[in-house]
Design goal:
The structure holds 2 protein chains of 2 kinds. Chain A has helices at about 1-20, 45-55, 75-85, 100-105, 140-150, 160-175, 185-195, 205-210, 270-285, 285-295, 305-325; strands at about 30-35, 65-70, 90-95, 115-125, 125-130, 150-155, 175-180, 200, 215-220, 255-265, 300-305. Chain A is of the alpha/beta class. Chain A has a 6-stranded mixed β-sheet, sandwiched between helices. A 5-stranded mixed β-sheet of chain A has the order 7-6-8-5-9, sandwiched between helices. In chain A, about 55% of the residues are buried. By secondary structure, chain B is mostly helical. Chain B is about 75% helix and about 0% strand. Chain B contains 22 helices and 2 strands. In chain B, strands 1-2 form a two-stranded antiparallel ribbon. In chain B, β1 (about 185) and β2 form a beta hairpin. In chain B, α4 (about 55-80) runs antiparallel to α15 (about 330-340) and α7 runs parallel beside α21. Classes of the chains: A alpha/beta, B mainly alpha. At the A-B interface, α2, β2, α3, β7 and α7 of A face α3, β1, α15 and α20 of B.
Chain lengths: ~325, ~500
């Protein structure tokens, strides 16, 4: 009950915030801390630092911004910190969908309801990758081979987005994988290049260099339509040449990882509105477009009710997979 | 030959006035963050990263990598002078560096450390220059079982040695493994050993542990043993800097061996910290002066420092050619590469020749700049030793507290650090060895991950550790190192049966 009422509250807060002009509202009076729930160099860290540099460049606020890394415990450190900072509007937490996924499967001392959602700013796509010299031309070939022997699938972390997607493929294609968790997608990519695993489901930016270097190639993208056309990655192919998985008979039409922005809980609607507005301004800059293109992500902006709905949908979905695998906490 | 040409082209990019200025700035900033414990190279580089977004990628990487060299050098300063490792990878430098400084030879200790570090870095760069493509292929051969075998080798080279009773070494190792297990487990995703403290989910930072164990622990011992007059009369002697450097070639074998260990651990995933430990362990075992290690032996400084820098330098190679960072700082730089619009991976060497060879050339120049600047600072740092203990002791406490706090802006870390200080004191008092504890904290969780990943792959069969030539060789080498001291003891007993018999009689 409590959870729903809080969600409703924040939803209405955003609706109100949309109606009131932001300029008249709250302004920060002291330095702002950007908390990246990832170590230096990770995707979430890059996002926080990109936003920091855009805000500073365009002087979108008078206050200085510091980026702090709290990536311990697969990001739990940053969220726990956010929970402990309830009511403090000077801490902005940058994360991913693990804000709501992690509390489902591990005993961490936070839940996404402890935080105030601000926005989902970008979506990272997922693709199915195999080694360059693997005999499979299509996802269909790959799955046929996977049905015969148990393939080793690598990914970042355990019971996180990569493993959830792996289990979804298992179910959709009626195959069985051995899932090997690594610390990051980049590590999984190198393991695939060395032939120690058979496949992984990395984001575009995690395997871009490997694709260009012809050590591995994508079979299909877990996206409802083909990815946007960008510059060619290899001599002959770009992201838009990768077929969708549905085209190839693997019925998973959409799987994405949002980059999310949060405030601690118990902040006022005006304070939240200030940051929603700030992120909107950031997104309108050419530097943002450049960041999105360079990291091969998809530009989105979900806030207010749309963001909350997105979380609920994703949560339902993950709960189902986690339930089937027996990962849910009792 | 083609590499040589590219390198010369790289020099034309690196040796320009703006780039040389960037190198000096980077190195000086790096020395600063390296000297301040807790700040360290990864944090320093990430603080500087946003400033580079508007720069040319080559200029940006030259600035950041110069800072890295500066930090690697600076990290040794506090290890040697105050027994507080400024960088995780300079822990092993404290073992002989600190006793030598206490002995009134801080200048010698610092100059020896910097000189051998520069040699290690040079070997690392030469390796990158000429063997880049070959090395990248070698690194690809490493899957989870091979990773585990490398960590096993690092443990084995360090465990059998030391004056401590074997059982005490095992106890120290076990405590280290338990500390390394705190936080989220990569393989199962579950939270372990947080003991009801929510924040512990992040795990125990290695820097926090080391500052407490070494800095505070040593301070407590010092307070108890000799409260007054701990100041050392160290003359500020420029000539000694050069004399110490001149003595280095005498340790040629140690230098080469340590550089080789460093390069190997930098390319494989061991990293600089494991490299410095392993190099120290092996040097102690194979040097004539092995018995005197730990009491201020020059070779005990040379071994870890050379390996640390060779590893730190060669760790940039897997980052550029494969997109796997060999060290924490390399990980930050890799994030930078992506933001500058470059994609680390096999094609970088083909697509971005100017960037790659500009960087490699700047490694030569940057390290020369770094060693020159850092040698200039030796007398200044050595003079710090003359400050009376009553003044320096509170300063050490302040440095440790601020350092622990700045790791992740958390009070819990300060409390943990002080707790580790007490542990460090007790370990010394009860003659437990600190080195195995530290080693287990650093690579314990990585070794565990690699072992369990290997077990997942093989469905629980240990046969995977003997599945190919590479992994079998590594595992057998590790076992040999582990059993060597035992075998030597047996041989000694067999050779002198009389004495052994006598002893037996006496015991009975």
């Amino acid at each position: 009950m409590k959870i729903t009422s809080k969600l409703l509250l924040s939803t209405t807060a955003f609706m109100l915030a949309g109606a009131i002009p932001a300029a008249a509202a709250w302004q920060p009076q002291k330095p702002i801390e950007f908390v990246a729930t990832a170590g230096p160099g990770g995707g979430t860290d890059n996002l926080a630092r990109a936003v920091q540099s855009i805000v500073t460049k365009y002087k979108l606020t008078d206050q200085p911004i510091v980026v702090v890394n709290k990536g311990g415990g697969s990001g739990a450190e940053g969220y726990v910190y956010g929970r402990a900072s309830a009511g403090d509007p000077y801490k902005v937490i940058f994360g991913t969908s693990n804000a709501w996924q992690q509390p489902l499967v591990s005993k961490v001392a936070f839940n996404y309801t402890d935080l105030t959602p601000i926005a989902a700013m970008a979506q990272d796509e997922f693709l199915l990758w195999v080694k360059q010299d693997a005999p499979y031309k299509t996802a269909g070939d790959f799955l046929k081979a996977a049905a015969a022997t148990e393939f080793k699938m690598g990914g970042a972390q355990s019971k996180d987005t990569d493993e959830v997607l792996t289990r979804m493929i298992e179910k959709a294609a009626r195959v069985k994988f051995t899932y090997i968790p690594f610390k990051s997608g980049a590590e999984a990519a190198v393991q695939l290049a060395g032939g120690h695993i058979d496949a992984h489901v990395n984001n575009p930016s995690e395997s871009l260099g490997q694709w260009r270097g012809s050590t591995q190639r994508p079979l299909c993208a877990f996206s409802p339509k083909r990815l946007p056309q960008g510059p060619k990655v290899t001599a002959s192919e770009g992201w838009s040449d990768v077929p969708t998985c549905v085209e190839q008979g693997l019925a998973i039409s959409q799987y994405e990882q949002p980059r999310t922005v949060w405030l601690p809980g118990k902040v006022s609607p005006e304070q939240a509105a200030f940051y929603v507005d700030l992120m909107k301004k950031v997104q309108a800059t050419p530097e943002w477009k450049e960041y999105i293109e360079k990291t091969s992500q998809v530009d989105t902006f979900l806030t207010g009710a749309a963001f909350v709905d997105f979380i609920k949908q994703d949560l339902e979905h993950v709960k189902q997979v986690a339930g089937e695998q027996g990962w849910l906490l009792k | 030959m083609e590499n040589l040409q590219s390198l010369l082209h790289g020099f034309t990019i690196a040796v320009t006035v703006p780039h040389l200025t960037l190198m000096v700035i980077g190195v000086l900033l790096g020395i600063l963050v390296g000297v301040l414990p807790g700040l360290g190279a990864p944090n320093g580089v990430s603080l500087l990263l946003p400033l580079t977004f508007g720069m040319q990628p080559v200029s940006a990487i030259i600035l950041l990598s110069s800072m890295y060299w500066g930090a690697l050098f600076g990290g040794s300063v506090t290890s040697i002078l105050f027994n507080i490792p400024g960088e995780p990878s300079s822990v092993a430098t404290t073992f002989d560096g600190y006793p030598m400084a206490r002995d009134g030879r801080p200048t010698t200790a610092l100059a020896t450390a910097f000189g051998s570090a520069a040699f290690g870095a040079l070997v690392g760069v030469i390796l990158i220059t000429f063997l880049a493509s070959w090395v990248a292929q070698v690194a690809l051969a490493f899957g989870p079982p091979e990773y585990f075998a490398v960590y096993f080798l690092a443990f084995a080279s360090f465990v059998g040695m030391g004056g401590a009773a074997p059982i005490k070494t095992v106890v120290a190792l076990a405590i280290g493994f338990a500390i390394a297990a705190i936080g989220i487990d990569t393989v199962s995703g579950s939270v372990r050993l947080t003991m009801g403290i929510d924040e512990l989910v992040k795990g125990v930072s290695f820097v926090v542990a080391v500052m407490g164990l070494f800095g505070i622990g040593e301070l407590l011992i010092a307070v108890e043993e000799e409260f007054q007059a701990r100041a050392v009369s160290s003359k500020v002697d420029w000539k000694e800097v050069f004399r110490a450097l001149g003595r280095l070639p005498r340790y040629g074998i140690a230098l080469l061996r340590s550089a080789a260990i460093g390069c190997w651990m930098g390319i494989t995933p061991g990293g600089p910290t494991a490299a410095s430990f392993m190099s120290y362990g092996i040097a102690k075992r194979f040097s004539h002066n092995g018995a005197r290690f730990g009491s201020g032996e020059a070779e005990g400084i040379i071994a870890p420092e050379t390996a640390d820098h060779a590893a730190g330098t060669s760790a940039l190679l897997p980052m550029l050619s494969l997109g796997i960072p060999g060290s924490a700082t390399a990980a930050v730089m890799m994030g930078g590469l992506m933001i500058w619009g470059l994609n680390p991976g096999p094609m970088l060497f083909v697509d971005q020749k100017d960037f790659v060879w500009g960087l490699i050339a700047s490694m030569y120049v940057g390290n020369i700049v770094a060693v020159a600047l850092v040698l200039l600072t030796v007398p200044v740092f050595a003079a710090l030793m003359r400050i009376p203990f009553a003044v320096i002791a509170p300063l050490i406490v302040i440095i440790c507290v601020v350092g622990a706090y700045s790791v992740s802006n958390s009070y819990l870390d300060v409390v943990l650090m002080l707790g580790f200080g007490v542990v460090g004191y007790l370990f010394k008092k009860l003659h437990y060895p600190l080195a195995p504890l530290v080693l287990a904290i650093v690579i314990g969780d990585k070794a565990e991950d690699a072992f369990r990943q290997a077990m997942l792959m093989s469905k629980g069969s240990l046969g995977i550790f003997f599945a190919n030539r590479l992994v079998t060789t590594l595992v057998l080498a590790g076992m040999a190192l582990l059993l060597l001291p035992l075998a030597l003891q047996i041989v000694r007993l067999l050779r002198k049966p009389d004495e052994a018999a006598h002893e037996k009689v006496r015991i009975i």
